[in-house]
Input
Amino acid sequence: MKITLYLRESRNEIKRLIKDPVLLISIAFISGLLFLFIVFPLIKVFQYSLWPEGEFSAKYFAEFFQRSYRWRPLINSLTVGALVALFGTVIGFIYAYGITRTDIPFKRFFRTVAIFPIISPPFLIALAAIFVFGNHGVITDLFNLDWDIYGLDGLVMTETLAYFPIAFMVLEGVLSKVDPAMEEAALDLGASKLRTFFTVTLPLATPGIATALLLVFIRSLEDFGNPIVIQGDFPVLTVEAFLAVTGMYNMPLGATLAIFLLVPTMIIFVVQKYWVSRKSYVTVTGRPSGAGLQSTERRTKYPLMAAMIFLSSCVLLFYGVVLYGSFTRLWGVDNSLTLENYRYVFSVGGQYISDTVTIALIATPIGGILAMIIAYLVVRKKFLGKGVMDFVSMLNFAVPGVVVGIAYILAFNTRPLQLTGTASIIILIFIFRRMPVGIRNGIAQLQQIDPGIDEASTDLGAGLFRTFGRVTLPLIAPAFLSGMVYMFVRCMTAISAVIFVVSADWQLLTVALLHEVDNADLAQAAAYGYVIIVIVLTAIIGLRLVVGGLLGRRTTLFQPE
Amino acid sequence: MFRRLLIFSLTAALLFGLAATGFTAKETLHMYTAFDVDEAKIYMDAFKESYPDIDVKWVRMSAGEVLARVRAEAKNPQASIWFAGPSTSHIAAAGHDLLDPYTESLAWQYLPADFKDPEGRWTGFYTGFIGFATNKEFLEKHGVEAPTSWNDLLKPVFKKEISKAYAYTSGTAYTTLISQLQAIGPKKLGWDQEDEEYIKKLSAQIHHYTKAGSACVTEAGLGEVAVGIAFSHDIVAKGIAKGYPVVMSFPKEGTGYEIGAVSLIKGGPEPQLARVFFDWLMSAEAQSLFKKWNRVPLNPQAELAEGLVTAAQVPVIEGFGGRITWYGERKDEIIDRWRQITGR
Output
């Protein structure tokens, strides 16, 4: 009975679709793009791994389990991921709670510090760790330490600092939206502040905490830049997959390792999307919930503030030392100041700068528009396979960059789609990897807009495009613009996918940075890093002014992933 | 209003994109080079002065990575010339039929047989010797001398204090490996029992592996590790000449050397321009530029750097040159064994 009902529903939906050809074509077009640039490359990865020479062979899989140097990196990656998720969430929680739930001063400063690592290439922190804790590091020399920063310690430290902002943003969102009425009720009933925290606040925030843990875990698992600098003798899977492909041209091996990298991230992604996020205990009303319960107690305030000051100083120390390092002549030996490194960056790297910015500027608007269209289709329209489109468009978000990179060179290096070596392949990677965030933003924003407005437009005779362009888009403009800013930032700081596809014609700044680090030319690497940061900051501030001027309202320029 | 802004920015982006990916009046030569970026720039700038109409677009990768790239692009090569890197990697590429022979350059006349491919698929243009770069401060602190033997590297004082590159990404590291295979144990081709034991013990002494061959010199200079194993020209140019406190030494059992090669990639987009660069490279004028990086040029008329490390000063393994081709042809198998032993 259910099946016939489902079939009839589907048939009706198809009939409805055929009556609206514009919608039909849009859906077909978008589905085509999603399949070609998200699903097809992944299929290729599986193909290369399990059908290495045209015939089915589980040889590489078997080898993975037999040789310790193949599976140990996976264990290492998971270990690092778990630790980073834990520490990152704790730190993120400290910041989030301090900012949303107490009345400590300098909140803007703390918030800025908490978000800062996002606008820099993530592996700049590994470089900073060497500047600070390496054998000639600032702290090492100051305290005469005997600590080897390479390896597990270094990885956990750098990735925690690089990714705690994600936990922070998720938790900030959650903690600021928990209905204060619950806590007030507990307090009224006589519970102490501490008890309220543990029995009311924390449980209500649990889905947010779970989300933070999972998201940071994924980011740590897929991290490539930091490990390649500081993993030392503690190999992780992303680097192994990279070396398999670029160092050994062993595509089947690279594909196999990619699959083993994909499995944990996919599991986590699915768990988060279909289980944790459904259990949100946050009350979402149309009105901002204003100030939650703000604690003025010294017992909570001062320790939190102390922790936040300490952590902020760590972040500032790291970035500060890199800035200083970029002006040194020869780090560790000759610390005299010079502009030579920047001169180098602008001469040798001048082409890289223009390449990177060009590609980012092309990818950003295309990705932004595509994200909005998909968000619109997913939220407002009902059609067959909507759930699939929703899932697929978010898929690349869970796929580690290294896997995407490998998948794209496997999929697009032969006719008819020979894109390797061109700018297009880089642009495509950027678009389809970064789109999910734009889609999420769009969906969130669209859900807050009464569908009645759209209906009014269509009732008055406007077609799909007209409604979208003149009614919906202006209303979701903040999400659109913040999505674009985010996309631009990620384009400028991306490394793990694009390192596979740079060519003699098109080079990227982050790849150049990595080469300098690989060559142990630290001061030059630092200069590259800051050039990237300056470009990103300029874009963000520039857009903030434009948005502020145009729309006259504040927007949050960053959303957690 | 907003819509107009949107349309405007989209059109701008599209036009910008079209213009940027558009054409230039110059001719472009696409190149892969294994030279350090700082060093490559020296030659690119000089070439540009002699040939201002040729725009060279180059990507820097370690020799093993170039090999991997050229293999990956075999059906649609993106570059026309492979500039630098030990001949062993070029030999491996020739074995996969990825290179175009070229025997018309002037180098063909002055190069002895060991320094060029008999069929002209690769041509040597410099050499360099594998040596050790050791941090002076470390030596003072621990009261030891710089290593002068392959076995010195196994001393407890150097445990986890050595860095070198992966044998499969770096030409430097592969040359190191084949030097070790020949210097240690009985003089026979390929792996033997003593070689395996040595490599196993050495890998326990390694702090970390790098992708690029000369990175360990800077790391030794910085004091991140005590000893780096690299080519003499890199040790001088990136270590001593830059002001890092490193000292260079060679193993007394004998060390190997590289024949730095250049080759034309088969099916590359600009074969003619590649030949122009090739010919320029073989000239005395171009090879005199190696002074700046302390490389040993193969053109007998090139000027040499002062105090250059030449074969006369280094304990070279006897007959090493004659075996390079053998080791180049078997690169894959030899490295596979290395990976199994070291677990990396």
